[in-house]
Fold this protein.
Amino acid sequence: MIAVVMGVSGSGKTTVARGVAERKGWALLEGDAFHPAANVAKMHAGVPLTDEDRWPWLEAIAHEIDALRGQGKSAVVACSALKRAYRDVLIGARPDVVLVYLQGSQALIAERLAVRKNHFMPPSLLASQFATLEEPGEDEHPIVVSIAQPPDAIVDEIVRKLEERGA
């Protein structure tokens, strides 16, 4: 199984994905590592990415997901996956890929971003993240978890829900 942990910047994707991967003994893919240098430079400069910027990045992640699936390996992928079209690239018709949505308010995430250090995504882009966000619909069968709780509780909830789905 592959779990794609999605949410806006500052929602805790990396922390939560790492926790789930460690708990399950699965591989961890950090979606940000697949960004080309030009994307990182744009975000660092406070310039929101366009869909054209994102397609090669999403395709690279999808390629790695398919490689892991082909090897029979399970993994957790931390990736913003803000739009349905982006999730369609990552998940599509892959029945063994599950969407996990880290849901939180813009105010809560802004508080977290204000204290985050050494990240290329500046807090000034949070509004553009929420403007781009298309929350997953029921037809995507997401696991939706509130980020208002501590990271360990979020990981516990996700692991429990993954296990309910056979992971």
